Amino acid sequence: MSSYFFTHFALHTIGTLGGGLSDFPWLSVSILFPIGSAFLIPFFPDNGEGKQVRWFALSVALITFLVTVGSYINGFDINNENVQLKESINWLPKLGLTWSVGADGISMPLILLTSFITALAVLAAWPVKFKPKLFFFLILIMDGGQIAVFAVQDMLLFFLSWELELLPVYLLLAIWGGKNRQYAATKFIIYTAGSSIFILLAALAMGFYGTEVPNFEFSHLANQDFGQNFQILCYIALLVAFGVKLPIVPLHTWLPDAHGEATAPVHMLLAGILLKMGGYALLRFNAQLLPIAHAQFSPLLIVLGVVNIIYAALTSFAQRNLKRKIAYSSISHMGFVLIGIGSFSSLGTSGAMLQMVSHGLIGASLFFLVGATYDRTKTLKLDEMGGVGQKMRIMFALWTACSLASLALPGMSGFVSELMVFTGFVTDEVYTLPFRVIMASLAAIGVILTPIYLLSMLREIFFGKENPKLTEDKNLIDAEPREVYIIACLLIPIIGIGLYPRLVTESYLATVNNLVDRDLNAVKSLPKTNVFAGNKSNQILKAPTI
Amino acid sequence: MPQASEIAWLIPVFPLIGAVLSGLGLICANKKINNSREIVSISLLSLVGVSAVFSYKTLIEQIDGYQSVEKLFVWASAGDFTIPMGFVLDPLGSVMLTLVTTITLLVMIYSHGYMAHDKGYVRFFTYLALFSSSMMGLIISPNLLEIYVFWELVGMCSYLLVGFWYDRDGAANAAQKAFVVNRVGDFGLLLGILGLFWATKSFDFNEIAIGVSQSVSENSLPVWAALLLCFLVFLGPMAKSAQFPLHVWLPDAMEGPTPISALIHAATMVAAGIFLVARLQPLYSLFPSIQFIIALVGTITCFLGASIALTQMDLKKGLAYSTVSQLGYMMLAMGCGAPVAGIFHLITHACFKAMLFLGSGSVIHAMEEVVGHQPVLAQDMRLMGGLRKKMPFTSITFLIGCVAISGIPPLAGFWSKDEILGNAFISFPAFWFVGLLTAGMTAFYMFRLYFLTFEGDFRGENKELQKELLLASEINIEEEEHEEEHGSLHESPWSMTFPLVFLAVPSVIIGFMGFPWDSKFANLLDPEEALIALESFELQEFLPLAIASVFIASIGITIAYQAYFAKKINLSKLFAQRFPSVNKFLSNKWYLDDINEKLFVKGSRKLAKEVLEVDSKVVDGVVNLTGLVTLGSGEGLKYFETGRAQFYALIVFGGVILLVAIFGFQSPQVT
Questions:
Q1: Nearest to residue A27, comparing CAs of A16, A18, A38, A42?
Q2: A with B: how many residue pairs have Cβ under 8 Å apart?
């Protein structure tokens, strides 16, 4: 890597340390620290069990978490809707590439979520005995890569971070996965790598739009006046790319395979953070940079969201494999993110953001529990389980709590976010009444379907007479303190948000309001249709310029 | 000291603190806390006790004319929207709080005896405290949204408590059924709340009513839409208060421990639906057609519950269907625009039905000593009989309960039920007639329960009958063959008889609060309405209706006496054999469970399976067909197994880094 860049960076760091905490390059540190530390792992003495490595990885992940918390406390003003904590270094001027990081309301909560979930995932990876050095190396690289995805303010850099995060996931799947890991990993890499080509194409198109010297900075792109057709083309490309990640039905089939084969800590990261990259990118690019196309596509987003909710809930109900069941439930929950993003109301969009944070916590907790249960039962097939509630009472309690959180029980975060999405969408006058009524009613069917598959899952695992085949197994011990601790760490914010959602929503409200205003202006230019309630002021669209 | 009404939000907080602490204790220090079970139960009991003291104080303040208190704060906001939360305390709330805390306390005392030998004693008390907290929260909710929050929480507690004995399949299924059926109602409730919020920009009960009537009169909200929204909201109470056709969960919920059946599934939670309809009276009274639907649903439910209860052989199921029927009466009152009468019946019913359920628990507790812990045996009345001599307190209080629910003056049930019937007579005469008929059926089936259980000779030692019953319920007998040490019948300990005796008092006298000519109860809840009722009261109108209902109740009791005590009438010959189809229809519970099972349970399973097929064959099939993945999974697999793929992936990764590094030597500039 560029030595000059690093030297400069180091000087910059030292220089700003004297200048006070607010100038400290918080975000660059939180990206580069875990990645840099990962490269120290090969020099650790190897005893094959990874006892030192895991402590090292845990402390690195924790420090990263503290750095992100520090950035939130010291450098982030929740009332400011603009990008803050900005650092910009002209990296590759020839390519138009800038090391430009920063955070606004929609990236900050996700950055915190990432470092938080990663720290817990490291703790969850305690029992990993197979190639522990490589495992923790990849996890730390992922940590930095994912924070970078949320923090970078340059579209080319965004593409690079997106790719950077992809490889560790591939390797983590292919080396530590279950029986079908090769198939799952290949499917994952083909899907995501294939779709990320669309990001690159869109990024290049947008960066070169209307200028001689390419400029990929978000702030530059946001002020560009893209033509309508250009916006639509870019929008489609990005929707496919991010739709794979979120995932949007029918681009989802990599997910059950990948989730079905991943080990618990990787699983937590996949569900907790990776899916959020899709939602975040949809907000950041599709909704923020391409408002005119967004206005035209958002009815589609709503329909796709409803399809996600119902389709995935039904498939989850029929699934007999525990991991796949929860994987499909993740897809179902992501439907609310889509509806929120397409809602044109700040309440709905806030709800989509909160749903991402909330599902990050709930999904991670459920997937962790799946892993912990598998360690004991050695099977994921629901038909082979049953009645283990009597041997594993605490485990049963944790499962029940997390399942109730997942089915959006009031008092937990999932309820608030789904409610905000519903309320935002229903009260929003942009769409016509029949469209809103039909979509809201269909989405609300999820309210019935979710408890059906989650509670019948609980019943099949824990309730009923003890299954003699399982109870013969001496492995059926109750939850250990480490596991209770991890779930407690996840449940505390879940319940905290559920009781007082403004803890989180306040941090991005300003940004979301700003974003929605922009989109609303765009939607006003649209003519009245079956879906849209009609134009309030008839702006003349600029002629397509591509 | 501030007025208790001002700090009413503390009332649900006390039991909540207790529940959280003992819940944490259960997870972190399971053995320790299970060993000190008495300390836990006494502390939880005293926390609920503190809430009860507060509740009584608020009730006294409200009777003294202290104003209603409402306090709000902003819970969530975005854009122009704010969602407020807070608490409200008015006469209705204080009455309900008093009722809930009192019955919770009694049930907790009772549970100390009933659950004494259960491994989950501490867990049970924790759930109880959690439930009481949520129920109190529901009562003091100032708006629809907050009601919805606690609505779901009491539903969750019900789920946890019905499935308390989770090693029993019946309990596991019933818990899930209860939650899912309630969610069907919540689906409507949620949509209704959202729709009303869209129409009125408010979640507040009164503001919604004002907003809806304004928009309807201004034609900005079509009448059909307003009706639809009202009906959607009504779906919630229909499920929670077990109204036809969403009542199917309540009888199954009897799989839970009996104290729970008394507290949640008779006295408090199932009344939440009635309570919500009462809160929404300002809205519902705008639309006579909605009132009619509510009254119709109530009437159907009340008749259906009573008719099914006629043939039940399971003591608890009989009482459960009786609860369904009584909830129907309350709903009928709501539909007649007489919420005060409905709430009055809610309170009297809570007292005597809780007592009846606790009494049945006492009977089951005694029966288990003889026939073992198999619910099919311990709860079947064919094995009971003659228990009066062994269990004096239980039988006397049960008898009081039967007289009260049958509507014999001067006990509580007479006054409240008669007020409902009187209101129905004015509003919907046809519904009055069905209600009257049901009153006769109620008297019959309640005394049938009493005579079969407490009079005659004890039949519990009959081994052949036991085997037959087990066979009929398709339970593996061999598994149950192990001989337990059977004891003999005896009266339950004081902790179980005390709540019975305590509840007998209001079951007898609480009706005096609601004389139609001088209703202290109506005075408290709705003074204006009470004044009107007082002025329009005429003895000539009251007496014929009262005599009619007492008369039909006496007929019911007489038939039950002749059939089950004096054995002079053989009902099975007289009725069951002559009309086998009717009998079958009733004992199969109007086939509603079968329809439910076939249509919804199997239907949804089938649909889900088909969608999964589509997902794995069609959607994923297309993906695999593209050949990219088949390459990797088929021939290419060997290629991956050698690890070369990872190697190539690393090369790609390294390539990107190298590229960046090469470009990186270009001089960077700080911007």
A1: A16
A2: 226
Beta carbons of A415 and A329 less than 8 angstroms apart: no
Closest-CA distance, A229 to chain B, in angstroms, reads: 29
Residue contact B180–A463, C-beta within 8 A: no
Cβ of A101 under 8 Å from any chain B Cβ? Answer: no
What amino acid occupies position B476?
N
SS3 of residue A251 by DSSP: coil
Please tell me if residue A332 touches chain B, with a CB cutoff of 8 Å.
no
> Which residues, in sequence order, are CB contacts of A120 under 8 Å at separation 6+?
A268, A364, A368, A486, A489, A490
pLDDT of residue A1: 39
DSSP A387-413: -GGGT-HHHHHHHHHHHHHHTT-TTSH
CA distances (Å), A439 to each of A336, B11, B191, B354, B521, in order?
Answer: 12, 40, 11, 43, 45
Residues from chain A contacting residue B660 (CB–CB below 8 Å)? 1-2, 92, 160
* Contact between B180 and A455 using a beta-carbon 8 Å cutoff: yes
- If DSSP codes are grouped into helix, strand and coil, which group holds residue A89? strand
- Separation between Cα atoms, residue B368 and residue B388, nearest integer Å: 16
Report CB contact under 8 Å: B190, A509: no
Of residues A91, A167, A347, nearest to B78 (C-beta): A347
Give the strands of the sheet with A97-103, arranged side by side: A97-103, A84-92, B669-670
Of chain A, the percentage scoring pLDDT greater than 90 comes to 18
CA distance to partner chain B, nearest, from residue A168 (Å) = 10
CA trace torsion B89, B94, B97, B98 (10° rounding): 160
**Cβ neighbours of residue B183 under 8 Å, at least 6 residues apart?**
A447, A448, A451, B155, B239
Q: Touching check for B163 and chain A: CB below 8 Å? A: yes
Is A95 part of the contact surface with chain B (CB cutoff 8 Å)?
A: yes
Residues across chain A: 546
Q: What is the mean pLDDT of residues A402-417?
A: 90
| Residue B186 C-alpha, separation from nearest chain A C-alpha, in angstroms | 8
Name the residue facing A90 among B79, B636, B670 (closest C-beta). Answer: B670
Mean pLDDT, residues B59-68 taken together = 83
Which of B22, B75, B80, B81 would you mutate first to test chain A, the one with the most A CBs within 10 A? B81
B78 in contact with A, Cβ within 8 Å: yes
By CB atoms closer than 10 A (0-12, 13-18, 19+), residue A137 is: buried
Q: How confident is the model at residue B638 (pLDDT cuts 50, 70, 90)?
A: very low
CB contact at 8 A, B51 and B58: no
Query: Is pLDDT of B634 > 50?
Result: no
Contact call for A451 and B190, based on CB within 8 A: no
Question: Which chain B positions have a beta carbon within 8 Å of A315's beta carbon?
Answer: 608, 611-612, 615
A448: enclosing H helix or E strand: helix A433-462
Consecutive H or E run containing A417: helix A413-426
**Burial level of B637, CB count in 10 A (0-12/13-18/19+)?**
middle
- What pLDDT, in 10s, does the model give residues B258-308? 889 888 888 888 889 999 999 898 888 888 899 999 999 999 999 999 988
Q: Dig out the tokens for A171 from the structure.
A: 């390797």
Point out the residue among B195, B604, B633 whose CB comes nearest to the CB of A186: B633
Q: How far apart are CA A411 and CA B261, in angstroms?
A: 25
Q: What angle do CA B134, B140, B144 make, to 5 degrees?
A: 90
